[in-house]
Design brief:
The complex is a heterodimer. Helices cover about 70% and strands about 0% of the residues of chain A. Chain A is mostly helical. Chain B is α+β, with helices and mostly antiparallel strands. Chain B is about 25% helix and about 35% strand. Chain B has helices spanning about 40-50, 90-100, 105-120, 135-150, 165-180, 195-200, 215-220, 225-230; strands at about 1-10, 15-25, 30-35, 55-60, 65, 75-80, 155, 185-190, 200-205, 210-215, 240-245, 250, 255-260, 270-275, 280, 290-300, 300-310, 310-320, 330-335, 340, 345. In chain B, the strands form 4 sheets. Chain B has a 6-stranded mixed sheet with strand order 6-7-8-3-9-10, sandwiched between helices. Chain B has a 6-stranded antiparallel sheet with strand order 13-12-11-14-20-21. The longest helix of chain B has 18 residues, at about 165-180. Classes of the chains: A mainly alpha, B alpha+beta. The interface of A and B includes residues 161, 164, 177 and 182 of A. Chain A: Its main location: membrane.
Chain lengths: ~270, ~350
């Protein structure tokens, strides 16, 4: 009996500690922006909205959220469209060595892209006049996301029985009609997942954007956040927390919207 | 009318799924392709639909050569084994989908879908999604969608196999009546011999990519042309017993039976008797196969009795209540029999 009580006590304390570990940063993010003089500890704020006024005065802050939307949205659209087409083809046509190709792509993309490939990518972007352009960022980050996106979407496509498409074909639908009427609606939860995932990864991405963009007018929020320091190099916690809160709102809104609109659900309709 | 000439399909890798198939299905006929799995029946159906391209041979539908036409231009409608009704569309949109492809205006499509749905008792379900329908309802939606496009022919791939046993019998009757009323040429694939016998006007029994026998259900049931068909057709398997012909008589598992004309001295034959046509005698008979009752299986209206006769098992169906006791000796007397030589029907 005592052993049982102690066991429950220990596990409850453990869960509480773990929860606190996750909850405290969130609490800080919710409280610090409204605090007149925030520190790195979480406390009940001396309520003020002055921090929001200050961040709106920052010449780059609001524009950077727009830049993030352009770059994240552009990359998400590009990744979803290209990955869907590639995954569909890979799922429906059997090419010799298809699986090896996919695994190789996935492996190389996680090893090569990112820090290791930074110098050649920068060189490539310079030669193609893509430095300091939204397009440059979109292309580079999309390239990094595509292999995983194709891999995940191919799984979704594999799970969609071909009899749907064959049925539409017998009724005379053209390949484009089949794609529009049947395949895309069927894998929409997958497409929504990939879109959200792509946008969220670009949203929080820093290194590519930091290196490929010179003009702060074009920098996304994740880079601008890095400029919110005093000349002495100390973080301006009031501005950083306020901007972090603002910067995270669009992503939260997007998650809610997508899960409500497309809902990661499936209707059935094939008798198994 | 659907006619096939020398239709052959060899898959990459060398599997010969169809081997020079010749077949004509008459207008309005309900035609069954019957065979064990892997015999090529589904491939044949898919080739008629245009989902597989034949290696050689040609396909005509109502006199037009459609061998090279894409599926959508053959004027056929197919119902898939898994129904393949689109999960993201409601019943109306599913039924109206073929009309949407033909650019029929929306209002007309909805009207047409409702009309077909009423006929198939789906009128109250028009706004449901497939996931909210029972198996039988899903099957009827798939049928309705096929009917809505007024095709020259229906192709059904195992249309009843996904329904549970009770529902299957109801759906069978329903399907046969519907086909009668619509009078549209229909080819359907099944591995269930009872289904083929019950539904079809004619049946083609297939094995290893070839047609083994084509005929009416009565012909196929009464005179299976080979021992393969004989063993495949019938709800209780046919007794197939080896025998020899000597001096104008057949010697089969201890019984002496009259030999048909055309048998030579010492020919090896297979003697086929359906258990339904096998009687049991309590007294010894020269024309009866002697055996000991080994198993009794209740079939409801009858009992399937298995006799052990030397190395052979002989089965007979007797009316309920008249079954012998286990272990007693009986003589199985064939009432109707078939004689096969080298696997082919002799008499």
């Amino acid at each position: 009996m005592i052993r049982h009580t102690v066991g429950r006590l220990v596990s409850t304390v453990f869960v509480a500690v773990v929860l606190a570990l996750f909850a405290l940063p969130m609490l800080w993010l919710a409280a610090a922006p409204f605090d007149a003089s925030p520190t790195i500890t979480t406390s009940v704020p001396e309520f003020t909205l002055a921090n929001f006024a200050a961040i709106l005065d920052n010449p780059y802050a609001l524009g950077s959220i727009g830049n993030s939307l352009i770059q994240g949205g552009g990359a998400a659209v590009l990744v979803v469209v290209l990955a869907a087409l590639a995954a569909y083809a890979l799922s429906r046509v059997s090419v010799p060595g298809r699986d090896v190709l996919l695994y190789l792509l996935l492996l190389l993309s996680s090893v090569v892209t990112g820090t290791a490939a930074m110098v050649p990518i920068f060189e490539l972007a310079t030669r193609l006049n893509l430095i300091d352009t939204h397009l440059g960022v979109i292309l580079v980050v999309s390239g990094g996301l595509l292999p995983a996106a194709i891999f995940i979407l191919k799984d979704f496509m594999d799970e969609t029985p071909t009899s749907y498409e064959e049925s539409a074909r017998v009724f005379g639908a053209s390949p484009l009609q089949i794609l529009r009427h049947i395949t895309v609606p069927l894998v929409r939860p997958g497409l929504a997942t990939i879109g959200v995932w792509a946008l969220a990864s670009v949203w929080g991405g820093f290194l590519f954007q930091f290196i490929l963009l010179r003009d702060p007018e074009k920098s996304p929020g994740s880079v601008i956040l890095y400029t919110l320091y005093t000349e002495g190099g100390a973080p301006k916690l009031d501005l950083i927390s306020t901007f972090s809160l603002l910067y995270s709102l669009p992503v939260v809104a997007m998650y809610l919207f997508v899960s409500q609109r497309y809902g990661f659900r499936f209707h059935g309709g094939i008798k198994r | 009318m659907i006619s096939l000439h020398g239709l052959t399909k060899v898959f990459p890798g060398g599997v010969r799924a169809l081997d020079a198939i010749d077949l004509t299905v008459a207008d309005g006929e309900f035609f069954a392709l019957l065979g064990p799995s892997g015999c090529g029946k589904t491939t044949l159906l898919r080739t008629i639909a245009g989902l597989e391209i034949p290696t050689s041979g040609n396909i005509r539908i109502n006199e037009a050569d459609v061998t090279r036409l894409p599926p959508g231009r053959r004027d056929v409608a197919m119902v898939f084994q898994d129904y393949a009704i689109f999960p993201h569309m409601d019943v109306t949109d599913n039924i109206a989908y073929p009309l949407r492809i033909r650019k029929v205006p929306r209002a007309e499509r909805v009207r047409k879908a409702a009309e077909v749905a009423r006929r198939l008792s789906l009128a109250d379900l028009l706004h449901r999604r497939p996931a909210q329908l029972s198996g039988g309802q899903q099957q009827r939606v798939a049928l309705a969608r096929a009917i809505a496009c007024h095709p020259a022919a229906f192709l059904f791939d195992e249309p009843l196999s996904n329904l549970d046993a009770r529902l299957r019998l109801e759906a069978r009757t329903f399907l046969k009546r519907l086909q009668r009323e619509l009078a549209v040429t229909t080819v359907f694939v099944t591995h269930d011999q009872a289904e083929a016998l019950a539904l079809a006007d004619r049946i083609a029994v297939m094995s290893a990519g070839r047609m083994v026998q084509i005929g009416t259900p009565a012909e196929i049931f009464q005179r299976p042309s080979t021992t393969f068909v004989a063993s495949f057709i019938g709800s209780t398997p046919m007794n197939l017993l080896p025998g020899t012909s000597t001096r104008g008589a057949l010697h089969v598992a201890g019984a002496v039976r009259a030999a048909p004309a055309g048998l030579g001295e010492g020919d090896e034959i297979v003697y086929g008797v359906r258990p339904e046509y096998m009687g049991l005698s309590e007294t010894e008979r020269q024309d009866g196969i002697p055996g000991t009752v080994a198993v009794l299986e209740n079939l409801g209206t009858g009992v399937l009795v298995t006799l052990e006769s030397g190395d052979h098992l002989v089965q007979a169906v007797v009316p309920e209540g008249s079954e012998p006791a286990l272990g007693v000796r009986r003589w199985a007397v064939p009432a109707r029999s078939l004689v096969y030589r080298d696997g082919a029907l002799l008499a």
